[in-house]
Amino acid sequence: MQPDFVTMAKGLASGYAAISCAVTTEKVFEMFKDDPSDPLSYFRDISTFGGCASGPAAALENMRIIIDEDLIGNTQRMGERLTGNLLALMEKHKVIGDVRGLGLFQGAELVTDRKTKEPVDEKLAQRVVAECSAQGVIIGATNRSLPGFNNTLCLSPALIASADDIDAITGAIDVALTRVFG
Prior knowledge:
This protein starts with a strand and ends with a helix. It is of the alpha+beta class.
């Protein structure tokens, strides 16, 4: 199912320039029109960055690089590798209750019991993140928005990630899980 409205920001210019956008369907856009016969009768936003040409220029260059360097293809290939590596870790570490995601945006849910899916204590998930950091690998964990359920390791390597990068990330997670959970 495709969303009717999406906002995007940092990814448009890879964080190098101030830019964001909102993308919607024609059906949703029509709801903002006061007078359909007037082409300028629609919702207009006010913008902190209005009139700034550097943000759009950076976004266009970023999109060119993504296309020219086949970063979407790399995301798919390395995402498959990441999924495979995480599933292999799931076989090795009973604390991984689920692996989910798409491409290079994936997570590994840490649980005390795979059947009940009871989450591990958040402090233990944070220790895994810290152990990875100590090895030079930065990963995240679900934010603190749902107390008691912040037990998923969050991975989002760069679109240029190589097979060696993916293996280093999952290797660090393997070591961290062993150190924290035995």
